[in-house]
UniProtKB/TrEMBL annotation:
The protein's name: ATP phosphoribosyltransferase
GO cellular component, one term: cytoplasm
Keyword Cytoplasm annotated: yes
Keywords: Amino-acid biosynthesis, ATP-binding, Cytoplasm, Glycosyltransferase, Histidine biosynthesis, Nucleotide-binding, Transferase
Enzyme type, top EC level: transferase
Species, as recorded: Sphingomonas oligophenolica
Primary gene name: hisG
Length: 218
């Protein structure tokens, strides 16, 4: 029997936006895939030999980089944070729009000038992107790694600033923070394992199917 082709898809907010794109690319998973209450992690699709796995957003890149999955759907924030050389990101899927930004308490921002920073202490889920961003402009960044709820860090004294994803800005506002610097714009991408691109004949036609699906949805 042929080895199945595995596509890694993040659970959470991207899943809902990814399902119509997958369908347009000709891949319809078994119903349990869209059911967030299901405890299954590996799902059949209506395409023989194509299976989906549902993993955490940050783990999609790791599964694909190591060849455990051949393709994946993941935010460009995650791709930038890992910078795996084994990953190729050929299609911008146009979903999961947000931005990665530096934020700080509104009272602090009133008198703060980012051009005067020489050292910053930052709470973030993105220590590598954060350090590289600040290093590029000669600022040393000391990062406190968190996996969520970064917005709590300034008021609780963990770090005066945060680097986190912003979309509507509601989370910042409700926690008394304001955006002071934008690091990158983010959308979700189709990622492919570079070796699989060469060794699995099904990969290139699938990439083209996703490209067409995105063009049709515009
Ligand atoms: N507010 C947002 N608006 C749009 N896209 C977002 C937003 N927040 C996150 N994303 C995108 O969705 C991806 C997954 O984010 P999500 O918040 O679902 O993951 P998470 O809850 O942090 O994941 P996990 O629980 O696995 O740690 C991010 O990597 C980013 O690309
Ligand atoms: O600007 P907004 O529209 O408020 O969106 C920003 C929020 O969205 C993301 O979190 P998410 O809602 O995914 O929660 P989580 O990180 O705790 O999973 C991000 O980490 C911010 O907290």
């Amino acid at each position: 029997m042929a080895t199945p082709l595995i596509i890694a898809v993040p659970k959470g907010r991207i899943l809902a936006e990814a399902l119509p794109l997958l369908a347009r690319a000709g891949i319809r998973p078994e119903p349990a895939f869209a059911d967030e209450d299901s405890r299954a992690l590996r799902f059949a699709t209506d395409v023989v030999h194509i299976e989906l796995i549902r993993v955490r957003a940050f783990d999609v890149a790791t599964f694909v980089a190591h060849g455990a999955a051949q393709l994946g759907i993941v935010g460009s924030d995650v791709i930038a944070e890992f910078a795996y050389s084994e990953l190729y990101a050929p299609v911008d899927l146009g979903i999961g729009h947000c931005r990665l930004s530096v934020a700080e308490p509104a009272a602090m921002a009133a008198t703060d000038d980012p051009r005067g920073w020489s050292h910053v202490r930052v709470a973030t889920k993105y220590p590598h992107v954060t350090a590289a961003h600040f290093a590029a402009r000669g600022v040393q960044a000391e990062c406190v790694k968190l996996n969520g709820a970064m917005e709590l860090a300034p008021t609780l004294g963990l770090a005066p600033r945060i680097v986190d994803l912003v979309s509507s800005g509601r989370t910042l506002k409700e926690n008394g923070l304001v955006e002071v610097e934008r690091i990158m714009d983010v959308t979700s991408r189709l990622i492919v394992n570079r070796a699989a691109m060469k060794t699995r004949a099904e990969v290139v036609p699938l990439v083209e199917a996703f490209r067409r699906a995105v063009a049709e949805s515009r």
